[in-house]
């Protein structure tokens, strides 16, 4: 995926922040507890996660499991940037997992590229969606939500505006600009 913000007539616009979110909210292997020696533990985290994700109350679960906040379960089960990021380049510089910050949202983890983006005109990311670890059932989507946003914007509010990038083709986005008027984000133009 290549994200570019360079246009001759608009080079003064700030480069937007980029956040990537795996479409799959949690890794199945972490929720099914495959490594657990206790057979009664296998699948319990999946049941808790599934109930919370679908707004149902959990029943007949061990008391110790009911005390775990869903946020902690999402933190543990979410896809990790160090396993998804295969390559990262900001302008002519290489970047790494250390350049991303993690946010836990109701629909999974998102990672925002951080650091000085001044003067940057292109970001290249090679990502592995880890489709082998997707939850079943799902909606049949594999890949990432890509969010382009300004500093201080709430990621959860921007999820509906995400661009989806799948693994079977190259995705190239051109962010033409980001303009704010009276501290209100107006629009991103993507070509």
Automatic annotation (TrEMBL):
Name any GO cellular component annotation. membrane
Swiss-Prot/TrEMBL keywords: Ion channel, Ion transport, Membrane, Sodium, Sodium channel, Sodium transport, Transmembrane, Transmembrane helix, Transport
What InterPro entries does the record tag this protein with? ENaC
Q: What is its main location?
A: membrane
Which Gene3D superfamilies does this entry report, sorted A to Z?
Acid-sensing ion channels like domains
Q: How does it sit in the membrane?
A: Multi-pass membrane protein
The compartments listed are: Membrane
Q: Which GO terms describe its molecular function?
A: sodium channel activity
User: What's the family?
Assistant: Belongs to the amiloride-sensitive sodium channel (TC 1.A.6) family.
Name the record gives this protein: Uncharacterized protein
Organism placement in taxonomy? Eukaryota, Metazoa, Spiralia, Lophotrochozoa, Platyhelminthes
């Amino acid at each position: 995926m290549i994200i570019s913000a360079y246009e001759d007539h608009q080079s003064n616009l700030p480069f937007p922040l980029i956040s990537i979110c795996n479409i799959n909210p949690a890794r199945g292997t972490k929720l099914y507890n495959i490594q657990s020696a206790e057979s009664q533990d296998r699948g319990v985290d999946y049941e808790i996660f599934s109930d919370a994700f679908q707004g149902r109350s959990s029943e007949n679960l061990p008391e110790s499991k009911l005390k775990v906040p869903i946020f902690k379960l999402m933190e543990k089960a979410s896809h990790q940037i160090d396993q998804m990021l295969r390559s990262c380049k900001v302008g002519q510089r290489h970047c790494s997992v250390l350049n991303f910050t993690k946010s836990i949202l109701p629909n999974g983890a998102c990672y925002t590229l951080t650091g000085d983006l001044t003067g940057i005109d292109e970001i290249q990311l090679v990502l592995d969606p880890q489709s082998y670890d997707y939850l079943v059932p799902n909606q049949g989507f594999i890949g990432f939500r890509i969010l382009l946003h300004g500093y201080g914007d709430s990621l959860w509010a921007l999820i509906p505006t995400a661009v989806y990038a799948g693994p079977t083709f190259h995705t190239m986005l051109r962010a033409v600009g980001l303009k704010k008027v009276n501290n209100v984000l107006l629009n991103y133009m993507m070509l």
